[in-house]
Specification:
The protein is mainly alpha-helical and 468 residues long. It is built from 23 helices and no strands. Helix 20 crosses helix 21.
Amino acid sequence: MINRVLIRIKVIQTLYSFLLVEKQFTLESTPSQPTKEKRFAYGLYLDMLALLVKLAREVREGRERVSILESTRFISRICVDETVKSLLAKSSVDFELAPAIPALAEKVKESAIYKRFCKDVKGDVSAPEENLWADIFNLIVMTDPQVSALMSRRQNFTLKGVERMKDMMNRTFRNFLASQDNVKEVETALTKSFDMARELYFRLLELPVELTDLQLQILDDNRFKFLQTEEDRNPDLKFVENQLVETLRNDEEITAFVDNNKISWRQEDPVLLRALLKAVVESDIYADYMACGTTDMHADVELWRNLLKQVILPDANFLEALEEKSVFWNDDLDIISTFVLKSMRNAEKKEDGAALVFDKFKDSEDERFGANLMRSVYKNKDTYRSYIDETLKNGKWESERVAFMDMVILLTAMAEIMNFPNIPLVASINEYIELAKSYSSAKSGAFVNGVLASVVSRLQQEGKLLKR
């Protein structure tokens, strides 16, 4: 019921909500009015950041020599900073703190800090880092005699400069923690969004039952009017005896969901329910149905499929009511209503063993897809943003002026392209072009297409993307 298209929509919606208010992580800037001490402290600060990156790459595990620390978000974030990238490139040959790295790597591997983090990760790339790098820096790097000796040989060395550097490093760690994304919180929001989409599905299946019950009550009330018509005394019960409605009413899964979630259109919005019923009974679809002689299950199913498509779903009051219940339901409606219509058709085939209610997800792979896509965005979004920004710069675009929704779509597209080898490249790109057309500006589809094509081409040339 929740297919890949809707999963992508939900991931983008959730990311947009969280990234919009995300606190940006930045490194310390070059000191204003620099003195010798400030220049020394800032230069040492940059070297310490480079040292942590090199240390992360040095600490490796197992036969494949995998670096768990190199994939942490703190290291990933500082590696995309232009100043740090430049420093790492220059220090590949000559780096003053390089002699201390092998011994530091051994200390880190033997430390309780590292072992605890490895235990927490257990293959989960979204495991919180908390004070990991602050502890490595303060408790291992800054207490190492060799590091102290190497720092003391630098030009303009002062103990006060070292303390200034330590303050800058610890501010950087605090800023990182303040901006660090709570992936679990985002996943919880995504799961809730899926649950709400599921609720909309059951609400739409329950709606014909409640509209029918309301019509039956009106017919019963008419029998007690003071001035009765023949129609009041002998009403046509064809509509209220609809076989599809009875099938929906008696389905155990629908009944259980409605009862457990206390769903009731009549209690929540009786005015809307009456307005929808009025629109139904005044429609040509209803008139044609009531005018025909006898009906069967097929005719009863087609009645409600047509009423849903042509009367209920386009109703402005109905759409407004949905938006009040969930800001995302109107976006979900096209996909969810398609499955509701399929469920109604399945009711016709129920005797042949066709399931009336669709499973929440098609399979376990689809069930995991949303969370895995979300994690992939959060783990790598700084790297993907750097790819996108470089493409925009080369194309004379200003990244600050790009619509935020377009940027979220691009980040999500990059995460899918880079992390899901079983999804064809063209399929991913086309999906996000269509999403951009639907959820951003009129020109967004062409924009997203152009940026993705450029980024993908570059990554393929560099050997970072093997998928074709």
